[in-house]
Amino acid sequence: MKIDRRCFLSLVIGGAAGTALTPLPWKLTDDSSIWSQNWPWTPVVAKGENFYAPSACTLCPGGCGISVRMTDERSVKIEGQAGHPVNDGGVCTLGLSGLQLLYGPNRVTQPMKRIGKRGNGQWQPISWDVALSELAEKLNQIRSDNGPQALGCVLEKPYGTVPELFKRFMTAYGSPNVMTTPSLQDSLDLTLKVMHGTDAHMVGYDLENADFIISFGSGLIEGWGSPVRTFRANSGWKDNGAQIVQVEARLSNTAAKADQWVAANPGTEAALAMGMIHVLINDKLYHNDFVENYASGFGGWQTLVQEDYTPEKVAAITGVSADVIQRLAKKFAAASHPLAVCGRGQGDEPLALSEAMAVHALNALTGNLNQPGGVWAVPKPDYIEWPEVELDAAAESGLSTARIDGAGSDPYELSASLLNQLAEAEEAQGLKALLICGANPFYTMAAAGKFQEQINKIPYLVSFSSYMDETAMQADIILPNHVYLERYEDVPVAAGLTRPIIGLARPVVEPLFNTMHTGDVLIRLAQEMGDNLATALPWEDYETCLQETLADKWDTLDEEGVWVDEEFEVSTWEEAFATASGKFEFGNTTLDVSPGYSALAPEGDRGSFPLTLIPFDSMRLANNAIASPPFVMKSVEDTVLKGNFGLIEINPQTAKELNLSEGSVAQLSTPRGKVQVKVHYFDGIKPGVVAMPKGLGHRTQDRFTAGKGVNIRELMGPVVDQASGLDAAWGVRAKLTKA
Amino acid sequence: MSNQEDQATEVESKETQGPAGPVTLFFIIGFALSLVVGWGIFPKLLYSQKHQPVEFSHMLHNDEVGDGCESCHYFREDGSFAGIPTLESCMECHEEALGESEAEEHFIQNYVLPEREIPWLVYSKQPPCVYFSHAAHVLKGGMDCKTCHGDIGESDQLKVYEENRITGYSRDIWGKNMIGLKKNTWDRMKMDDCAECHMKENVRQGSVQTLKGGCFVCHK
Q1: How far is B19 from chain A (nearest CA, A)?
Q2: Is there a common fold for A186-378+571-585 and A611-738?
Q3: How far is B79 from chain A (nearest CA, A)?
Q4: Which of A4, A18, A35 is closest, CB to CB, to B35?
């Protein structure tokens, strides 16, 4: 018998045949698939105790309460907190994605000092002790060499213990130069100052009870006000049959969902409001009792209105027919709870004071002030009561100097903060150091590039940012704060609510990195600098300061995560006005401003720049200090961002005149710069007007947002509103050519 | 002459027939060997025999507690299932030795005193791709523990944990029977076994299109 290759082969074949009839191959296949699931890089659900930890979201001024689902020490999901007075279980896409900011790669993990040229991204990690002693030394030196007024401070918002600690620090140091990121709130605060005579109130809107809402460019479902609250109010309106009129130059989501879209020319919303006022006055449709008994200055003002804002004149300005204006006004007056709101998009930019006053006057004339469904004057957060700061001689001298941004001085006596003026002021050269906390002005300010250039002249920039954002990238020293989910902080809500509400941000995880609560940084800094600074910030640490400051509210806050002023009752017309006349003022002699339309021309001449470029807001593109996390970026439509190209909305008619086809690359130029974009035909925008969203074009190292699209704020120059000094630019002139 | 021709033919025919013998034989050998390996040796090699860290008697403890299985394997207030009890539960009674057995002594010395959680080997552990809700099946479905887990409660000692060397999971998931034949509902715990019961009980599943189980219900 010959044992050869054939035998061997048949052995193997026999083996194979037999194996197929055993469980071996089937079991091994199943086992291999399970084995592949065990590979170490395969993501697996964490095991551990599951529970919910309450906190507050601080990613926008909305003040929502959140519930963070935890697995042991890891946060796995953010949900809205059920029963919370602001959002009752709702949450927006940005809030939902907060964990990506907490655990993301863009974090500043420890204090860092700049080495090499500014903006080069070369950092030396230092310890907290070194960081604080260096900063203390620097600030002491500036105080003695240049005077305390050479220190400036930029905050995102003015309310809360941390901003108040900054203000207290600056007062004890001796500098009046505390500025805040500009927003609609600045215009509304001024409106109340001028028309109600109060500095202690901010504007609230009783959205839930309104039944006829006219929005002058406000992105009601684009994130205006307290976003989730406004969404819910909007749903309520749909359920209750309330009428929504959207006045806007482009068909935003809000306009598309409204009952009526009034496509006024961009920037002319105030004229439309005045046109409506004209009809109310002419046809005597206004609230007689209010005007007769609780208002002053109506007589003179109404003559002005009758002359300048006839429906025909307004039609010429706005492009809205006189007929529509008449009907709008009549419907508005006839509604039982009419409400007019203003603030373009999300309300991140101020309005011209006259515009804010015009819309406020429209509300006042229907008698809806402090009434159900109307505009309310709600007390500003005033729960922080600390003893007066003891000033030394240097501090007193410094505090008596004029503010570097010109706020509080002629001609802007009533304005509280004018950050936009900082870049213009020659005296800004006099600032030797700038502290920046919670804000990202090198991204958000108009002509952002120029603003950055000017501010870069200040020799020492201090950032407290948790992320390496555009502003932190230019800093000389970064003292990273804990992310909101890692820290305790009071969250007073200033987003148009109808009663004072304070939320509590709570740590749901231990700080991941070597960061320090900015409140603690300030306290330790003050202690290190000694003397009256140490006396002014005497607390052991920030948590002690927080608990002591919140005093009897602390227990409620700690238990429920939110404190609501249940006893708040809005003032009656008898008590509401603290003007010289004791009544509502239709004009203001100090500032020589009255409700009206100030034609604030956008930068650029029509000849070189034939188009008008306007920005728009989107829930998917965070455009304040935070950049959209990846989850949210993924939801951005490809009619907004395609690859790395930002798309520009243009009316097909205009596009064809310019010989630009859909999807083609074009060059967009404004007086502030040029950039490449892709063209997107959109029927919902007026011919001659083009639009791009805010929130793109980041210049950070974050690979999810950097280099995508265009930062429209870089292309827009500021346009100063004469009455307030605020930058009230609503657009810029532009040119679009084939690339 | 013809003789030579005959011989040649014979040799030829022998040559053509020749290799068939050993070839068939080798085929049969290969076949038989693989059957032996596949049915006999493979299961033995595939599983390692492991012992539980502590010798625990369900029967003994079942007599001592009031609520049966639920005394230690209970639902928490939020509806989640506690699963295998933690050391804390055991220590409610066993802070000190209650009896005189060696097993208990070993348990006290190695786990109670150093406050170390017992690393139980879990027979019914499923891979992480599986989402299972006890609340849905026990509280809502009214099922008995025995249906899926067998009569562990009646056992005097914990059986040997046969760990699949490739996957790390217990033999109880695929089932003792290598070709997946089962006698009792608790003999296997693969997806098909869950599906079998769901079909039988006509459970309303997630998929509107197929009216069968939606994948996402268990594989979130």
Answers
A1: 7
A2: no
A3: 12
A4: A18
Cβ atoms of A314 and A329 closer than 8 Å: no
Say if the Cβ atoms of B178 and A8 lie within 8 Å.
Answer: no
Residues of chain B that touch chain A, judged by Cβ-Cβ distance less than 8 Å: 18-19, 21-35, 37-39, 42-43, 46, 80, 127-129, 164, 166-169, 174, 178-180
Distances (CA, A) of A498 to A375, A598, B108: 9, 29, 62
Backbone angles phi, psi at A645, to 5 degrees: -90, 130
Tell me the CATH number of domain A50-173+473-495+499-568, given options 3.40.50.170, 3.40.50.740, 3.40.309.10, 3.40.630.30: 3.40.50.740
DSSP A303-344: HHHHHH--HHHHHHHHS--HHHHHHHHHHHHHSSSEEEEEEE
- What are the extents of the domains in chain A? 5-37, 50-173+473-495+499-568, 186-378+571-585, 611-738
Kindly give the pairing relationship between strand A584-585 and strand A673-681: unpaired
In angstroms, the Cα distances linking A664 to A114, A586, A615, A720, A722 are: 42, 50, 20, 35, 40
Report DSSP letters for A605-617, one per residue.
-TTT--EEEEEE-
DSSP A588: B
ipTM of the complex: 0.85
CB-CB under 8 Å, A4 with B31: no
- Domain A611-738 matching CATH 2.40.40.20: the answer reads yes
Cα–Cα distance measured from residue B111 to residue B116, given in angstroms and rounded to the nearest whole number: 5
Q: Do A35 and B167 touch (CB under 8 A)?
A: yes
Average pLDDT over all residues of chain A? 95
**What torsion, rounded to 10 degrees, do the Cα atoms A621, A626, A630, A634 define?**
0
User: Residues 6 or more apart from A732 whose CB is under 8 A from it?
Assistant: A602, A603, A604, A609, A612, A613, A670, A671, A672, A715, A716, A717
Contact A359, A277 (CB under 8 A): no
Q: How many residues does chain B have?
A: 220
Three-class SS of residue A682? Answer: coil
Residue among B30, B128, B164 minimizing CB distance to A10: B30
Backbone angles phi, psi at A38, to 5 degrees: -90, -5
Q: What is the pLDDT of residues A663-674, one digit of tens each?
A: 999 999 999 999
> Rounded to a whole number, what is the distance in Å from the CA of A28 to chain B's nearest CA?
9
Min distance A239 CA to chain B CA atoms (Å): 29
Element spanning A54, H or E: strand A50-56
Full-model pTM: 0.86
Q: A219-244, pLDDT tens digit by residue?
A: 999 999 999 999 999 999 999 999 99
pLDDT in tens, A18-65: 999 999 999 999 999 999 988 988 877 777 888 999 999 999 999 999
**Chain B residues touching A40 at Cβ < 8 A:** none
Task: Name the residue among B34, B166, B180 with its Cβ closest to that of A15.
Answer: B34
> What are the contacts of B137-141 at 24+ separation with CB within 8 A?
B138/B75, B138/B81, B139/B75, B139/B79, B141/B201
Q: What is the pLDDT of residues A499-537, one digit of tens each?
A: 999 999 999 999 999 999 999 999 999 999 988 999 999
Strand locations in A368-409, DSSP E?
375-379
Structure tokens at B199: 């079909």
Q: Shortest CA distance to B49 belongs to which of B164, B183, B214?
A: B164
Beta bridge partners of A262: A247
CA A671 to chain centre: 25
* CATH number 3.40.228.10 is the correct assignment for the domain at A186-378+571-585: yes
Contact A468, A497 (CB under 8 A): no
Q: Is B168 helix (H, G, I), strand (E, B) or coil?
A: coil
Domain regions of chain B by residue span: 2-47, 121-218
